[in-house]
Amino acid sequence: MEQFYQVLTWIGVFAYWLLIAAVTVRVVFKRRVVGVSLAWMMIIYIVPIGGVIAYLLFGELNLGKKRAERAREMFLPFGNWFKQLNDCPGHQPQQMSLVAKPISDLCENRLGIPGLIGNDLSLQSSPQEILRSLVADINQAQHSIHLEFYIWNPGGLADEVGIALIQASKRGVKIRLLLDSAGSMRFFQSHWPKLMRGAGIELVEALAVSPFRMFFRRLDLRLHRKIVVIDDHIAYTGSMNLVDPAFFKINAGVGQWVDVMVRISGPTVSVLNCIQAWDWEVETGKRFLPPLPSCSFDTAHKDTVQVIPSGPGMPDDIIHQVLLLSIYQAQRSVVITTPYFVPSEHLLHAMKGAAERGVEVHVVIPRKNDSVMVEWASRSFFSDLLESGVHIHRFHGGLLHTKSVVIDESHCLIGTVNLDMRSLWLNFEVTMAVDNIVFTQELSQLQQSYIADSDEVNKEQWSKRSMKNKLVERSFYMFSPLL
């Protein structure tokens, strides 16, 4: 009997070794960023069995068989729709600036989406302004409203938006609402879904979370986009979820969330509408290709807006490429605001390189973060950045959730994308590259108000932090490619 158990033990050891070897080979053959592969292998080796299970659940970008098949079938019709934008009056590449043209060329070659002129943009920077503006536009809607958000949290002014949507639906406006299952969990547990569906609103729970689905799709893959399109004429996008900050995570100890949204009219509205239609079809299988931009918009607005979506089904790391291109083009200044700062090695080198060649580089992040892991991982990058001359500001007016990059106070990036690996390589995201000096300077002034409400990290004082803190930072740094 003892010999039997000994043989059984050896079989178990060999089977475990075979499992570890197989998963390691799979990690290596995926040819991802080296840091990501090393982080996963460390987890696999340090946490027996659990590390392997974690990799099988979260280690690969698995959209699920049904969604992946839909996405493949959608490439041609959506590609043809985007191709027709080249015939739109707003597509005038000869009028693009020297900074807008390379970004537009990159996005057109990889995504098929060109930059378009003829847009009117309005920056909204307070939750009351954003939500009341949204309610006013919903109340004026005539035929359609399409929305998608990561989080809808009931309470406060968010409820006024819900009421406005129900009233619009009752007067005959067709409404499609797509909400991420994990981010909007409180909403789906509330009375709102029943009210909305009873009023005729098409409400869909995107990327539903359940123990059964974890064997078929990566559970932490999230719909992180924020898009509203009203009557194919007005659109909103930016960093703000459908929440009233006075009623959202009030016990988290980080203060109220600070966000921006951009209200848009012009040909870019149709592009955002098409991205929402893409997400709707991936989730439901129903196709609603929107109308192409009309020819009646104001071409007096010559500045370019480039819409850049990313996520499963889109070209890999497209927003990451645009970020790098923008920083490398900087001549005088780069100002970045982000709630979650865990940059890739390429972004880290781009920021350091910009500072070392004399560009003023500022990074503004929250002083307190709702993610402990991200906060410690962020700190692990401070020393390298400070040594290169990058200015780091820790905002103490709440959880700064605005995702923005302003280059030379002349052009900018604004949208849903955090400077972390999850946003840049995993989630469904959208950002806009805006070549409009008036809009950019307004955004720059807002960024400066954030900096005025921040404490700048002092290089000498930072170098004197405790060895314990340094050890914790380095520990979380090892896992930063997975955050």
From TrEMBL:
Membrane topology: Multi-pass membrane protein
Keywords on record: Cell membrane, Lipid biosynthesis, Lipid metabolism, Membrane, Phospholipid biosynthesis, Phospholipid metabolism, Repeat, Transferase, Transmembrane, Transmembrane helix
Pfam families, alphabetized: PLDc_2, PLDc_N
Catalytic reaction equation(s): 2 a 1,2-diacyl-sn-glycero-3-phospho-(1'-sn-glycerol) = a cardiolipin + glycerol
Keyword presence, Protein biosynthesis: no
Function, as annotated: Catalyzes the reversible phosphatidyl group transfer from one phosphatidylglycerol molecule to another to form cardiolipin (CL) (diphosphatidylglycerol) and glycerol.
UniProt name for this protein: Cardiolipin synthase A
Organism of provenance: Photobacterium leiognathi
